[in-house]
Amino acid sequence: MAEWIETDDGSLTLRHAVLGELYHSDRGAVGEAEHVYLRAGLDAVVETTGRRQVAVFEVGFGTGLNAWLTARRAQESGLQIDYHAIDLYPLDDETLRGMHYTDDPRFVRMHAVPWDGIAHEWTEGVSLTKYAADLTTFDFTRLAERFDLVYFDAFAPDAQPELWTEEIMGGMFTLLRPGGVLVTYSAKGTVKQALRAAGFEVTRLPGALGKRHMVRAVRPME
Questions:
Q1: pLDDT tens-digit readout, 170-198
Q2: Residue 221: partners with Cβ closer than 8 Å, 6 or more residues away
Q3: How far is CA 14 from its chain centroid?
Q4: How many CB atoms are located within 10 Å of the residue 14 CB?
Q5: How many angstroms separate the CA atoms of 111 and 93, rounded?
Q6: How wide is the angle at C-alpha 64 spanned by C-alphas 216 and 169, nearest 5°?
Q7: Over the range 140-151, which residues count as b (16 or more CB within 10 Å of their CB) and which as e?
Q8: Cα–Cα distance between 73 and 79 in angstroms, integer?
Q9: d(CA 118, CA 139)
């Protein structure tokens, strides 16, 4: 059974029952998500483009922490968010009942949204589409050039190398509009190589909570 663990910033993360991998950094689940996906991702896209409507695709929905933080930031900033997320093994109801990030009703409603690949109004200004699907067989062309931002939050490359290949990164390239951004916590050499081979311009940024580096990758303007 999955195990809940308190991280250094007091927020919870989950240890995967089969892989043994943590869903977030043990140095701080919320802190890592804020650094990698909110500040280096959403905030940077809004600041550089001036967009007030942002379409986000998340790889690895997991506990929903990134989605919830994004919705909270969007409502604080007056943004409109079209949020899509894919996960092959959504968490079961028993595991979700052990989750205690927040009493925010948005968090509860988020997990009530069905995994049916259909857009649902989640909370004011934010729609949510959830795909219970295998990333390695997903048809990226059906959503080609729809997104401004990808949160790539799969388990680590050593645990799930099949999700960090050039082919998968090519799928991410397909999803993004020209100028679109992918952010991920991993700065492993093979990850950067796969991103560059797929056509991305790759930049290494300071990592979260004492980690040396993370990656931001941009689909070039055409």
A1: 999 999 999 999 999 999 999 999 999 99
A2: 178, 179
A3: 16
A4: 21
A5: 9
A6: 35
A7: beebeebbbbbb
A8: 8
A9: 15
